[in-house]
Structures are given as structure tokens and as C-alpha cells.
Specification:
about 160 residues; mainly alpha
Length: about 160
């Protein structure tokens, strides 16, 4: 019975949604604007935690960024204007999903290029083995090599 209860509690804990760090005093009175703020907060990186969104982080800087996002939305900025403002202020690193631009094109393209290159190299290796590896005859033995081979073969037949 204890195992069943423990499994049930564990299942319930796993089923709970991720807790958000947004404090009650940060929430905007307009639900539509608050939804926009939450959406933007999930796209922005906490500069302290670096692998969490500001929506999930309890760091003071994340709180400041959440308040800044809400301030900009309250001032009438669009989502892209808010993101552009934060990128201009903190750099591209503030975005959890970087934009595809000239500066970071290598970041976006390196993975697929390496995957394609590895696939081509594997295909060439398989093709090379199938067509040429086994059919190449060995070069003929020299007279010296033939003599050494005959000596080795005669030594093996003499030993018990």
C-alpha cells in the first residue's frame, strides 16, 4: 500500500505544471496584457541563471526584467518592440531562441552542415568499400620475400 501511495504522490508531483516565479505584485490588471507579458517572459533568458526563462527564475535581475517587460507593454509597445528593446540593451544572449541573422548564421547552420557532411562521408566510405576495397590484388612477392616465406614454411613443418 505504501508503494502505491508513493507512486501516486510521485505521479502527482510530476504532473504539476512548472512553478512560475512571477510575484502577485508584478501581475498586470489587464489579462490580455498579462498574457503577452508571460509569453514574452518565456522567450527571455535570465542573465543570472542563464538556462531559465525570466518567467521561471527567482533571481532579482529576472524580476527586474519581468517588470521592464510589463512596463514596456503598458507603454504600448508591441511584442517585437519589447524584444528589440531588450536585445539592444542586453544583447542577443537575452533571447532563449536566438534569431536567424548574419552574426549567428553559423550557430544555426553548423549542426545541419555537420550532419550532412557526416552522412556524405559515411556514404562515400560505404561506397568505396563496396566497389574497390576487396578487388585490389596484392602486389607480387619479390625473390627475397619468396625465400623468407619458404624458410618460414620449412621451419613450421619441422617443428612438432
Amino acid at each position: 500500500m505504501r508503494r502505491i501511495m508513493a507512486a501516486f504522490v510521485l505521479l502527482m508531483l510530476l504532473a504539476l505544471p512548472a512553478a512560475h516565479a512571477v510575484q502577485p505584485d508584478e501581475i498586470m490588471s489587464d489579462p490580455a496584457k498579462e498574457a503577452r507579458a508571460r509569453e514574452l517572459s518565456r522567450e527571455l533568458r535570465c542573465m543570472v541563471c542563464q538556462n531559465q526563462s525570466i518567467d521561471d527564475s527567482d533571481a532579482p535581475l529576472a524580476r527586474d526584467l519581468r517588470l521592464l517587460v510589463r512596463e514596456r507593454i503598458g507603454a504600448g509597445d508591441s511584442n517585437s518592440q519589447v524584444l528589440d528593446f531588450l536585445v539592444a540593451r542586453y544583447g542577443e544572449f537575452v533571447l532563449l531562441k536566438p534569431r536567424f541573422e548574419r552574426q549567428n548564421a553559423l550557430l544555426w547552420l553548423l549542426g545541419p552542415l555537420l550532419l550532412i557532411g557526416g552522412g556524405v562521408a559515411l556514404w562515400l566510405q560505404i561506397r568505396r568499400r563496396a566497389h574497390g576495397g576487396a578487388d585490389v590484388p596484392a602486389p607480387p612477392l619479390t625473390a627475397d620475400e619468396k625465400a623468407k616465406l619458404a624458410a618460414l614454411m620449412s621451419d613450421e613443418t619441422k617443428s612438432p
